[in-house]
Design brief:
CATH topology of the largest domain: Chitinase A, domain 3
CATH architecture of the largest domain: Roll
Structural class: alpha+beta
Largest sheet: 4 strands, antiparallel
Distance between the termini: 47 Å
Order of helices and strands: HHEEHHHHHEHHHEHEEH
Radius of gyration: 31 Å
Number of strands: 6
Length: 300
């Protein structure tokens, strides 16, 4: 379906507004991809208050990747319009004295706290998740590490042991595994490939199947059917191999998440160690010594 230019622009404007309302603390990534302009020019004024290019760039950095991939000259007017609308609303709120409302003040304090939390975490996290830092951590964790053992196997899945034993007997007489798979197997995906499951590690299969498959030699068929939650299997191992060690590009995102979690936990622990923390009951009374144990997380 081809959308009209007007509807596309409207959808983009709504997406930008939602993103700008919840704009996170972040470095102006978009600014790094565009030529630097100095001094920072004023690109609009709202009630005499300037909006500078740096503000637009920072707003762009907080947008979804799909939006950031748009040409800057295309994205700029939409982001600027949303910043203008946001500034207009802020000025209207101040004229109405809403910043003096206790409920608004509580929300402002919460917002300020969130920005400060993000700032201290970015300070601790950012130096440790650069490409160079991630690669150094990857190399340290994977030096001398070899890939996992994998087997290449095929199987025939049937609902009862008697049929499985019949298939084993036919194979011993020289029966064709692929033909028997097409005739009997209840695994449509595998039977379409002559029962072939490709290469897999132990962790990818249910324990009973994995134990049986990894115990077989190359070319060997299981002498006895293997029962799992899916039914009865006749398994043949074709070959085995050592998988290649993990590549940095494949591990980068998961490693980054791991390091972020570690740094957040370390940052919180360090901050806690420098302050006194006291806990009280829900009614504000002092907790007893027997109440000091941490409660289990919700749902546990």
């Amino acid at each position: 379906m081809i959308h009209s230019q007007k509807s596309t622009a409207g959808a983009l404007a709504r997406a930008l507004m939602l993103a700008l309302v919840g704009l996170p603390f972040s470095a102006p990534v978009w600014a790094q991809a565009t030529p630097a302009l100095a001094p920072d020019p004023v690109v609009a004024t709202v009630g005499g208050e300037p909006i500078r290019l740096a503000e637009v760039r920072e707003a762009m950095a907080g947008l979804p990747r799909e939006a950031q991939s748009m040409p800057p000259q295309t994205l700029f007017p939409y982001v600027l319009d949303q910043l203008i609308d946001s500034r207009v609303l802020v000025q209207a709120a101040r004229k109405a004295g809403l910043e003096k409302d206790p409920a608004v003040q509580r929300q402002l304090a919460i917002s300020a706290d969130r920005v400060l939390q993000a700032a201290v975490l970015h300070r601790d996290i950012d130096p440790q998740v650069t490409d160079a830092a991630l690669k150094a951590r990857f190399d340290k964790d994977n030096t001398g590490k070899v890939g996992e053992l994998e087997v290449h196997a095929r199987h025939i899945l049937v609902p009862d042991e008697a049929t499985a034993k019949k298939i084993v007997a036919e194979l011993k007489k020289g029966g064709d595994f692929a033909a028997l798979s097409k005739q009997y197997s209840k695994d449509p995906g595998a039977s379409a490939q002559d029962g072939d499951l490709g290469f897999f590690t132990k962790e990818r299969m249910v324990p009973e199947f994995a134990a049986a498959a990894f115990a077989l030699k190359d070319g060997e068929v299981s002498a006895n059917p293997v029962k799992t939650q899916f039914g009865w299997h006749v398994i043949q191992v074709i070959e085995r191999r050592q998988s290649p060690p993990p590549a940095f590009e494949d591990a980068r995102d998961e490693l980054r998440q791991q390091i972020v979690q570690e740094v957040v936990q370390a940052s919180v622990a360090k901050a806690k160690a420098s302050v006194t923390v006291e806990k009280f009951n829900m009614d504000g009374t002092a907790r007893k010594a027997t109440d000091t144990a941490e409660p289990p997380p919700p749902g546990k």
